[in-house]
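User: My instructor asked us to take a sequence, write out its structure as tokens, and then describe one feature of it. I'm not sure where to start. Here is the sequence I was given:
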Amino acid sequence: MLRMRVVGGLVVLAVAAALPAAAQDATIGFDAAFNSSYVWRGLSLTNKPVIQPDVWISAYGFTGGAWANVEPSSYTGAKDISENGTDGAGIAEIDLWLEYARATGNVNWKLGWTIYTYDTNNSGLTAFYDTHEFYGQASISGLPVTPQLYVAYDIDKVKGAYIVPSLSYGVKAGPNLTINLTALAGISAGQEVSANDVSANFAKSGLAHMDFSASTSFSAGSITIAPQFHVQWCRDDFTKIASPTTQHSTKVWGGVTLSWSHGFGASSASE
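Assistant: Let's start with the prediction itself. The structure tokens for your sequence are:
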């Protein structure tokens, strides 16, 4: 029921934003990521190629959307990690999110809420793992490097916090091309295995993994193309899992995201 109410709220926002005239300024958008695997917070949730669409609408500083992880094929081999299990190809996860973003001087910050749902499955991750969390993020612009801090707190099944400090640096590779180099650390603060929680994201508290990535973006007409490449160092036993039978201290993965957005309302009408 909660999921249906949130979806209904997003539909209402979409309809309201589409109203004509001086109603409001809004932007709608669609992203589609094509990744070599689904790595979430250092954890390999699917170790084969995935498609991850995201549809969203933004108005007055608020943005809400629905994101999904789609396994395009049946991943049932002995070395496969699959959110769908033996259910075959299809949607494995649907997440709903809502956030509010502002800039205060050179500090950009946002506060948000995410619902994670897995009840599209029978044999993979099921509704037992459904949970939700609140999060906050702040970054400082105008410096040689961009520091950022992200903190999420699960208030349902997993409980505890996940903390990500990071640094990014943009390297000018051409007149219209910048390569963004990012280093981050994923830290568990209470999301480890515990007798008090029904599920856990990590084996222990503390540093779970570090991720070093390179990304860029460029436009092709109305579409933005953003490739990325990650090298991850794994410290937590759960982040080391690369298949049902193997663990690795390092992981390599990447992909490309295609994005489209359209603004409308008073300001877009005057452009």
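For the description part of your assignment, you could build on this observation: The longest strand covers residues 90-104. Try explaining in your own words what that tells you about the chain.
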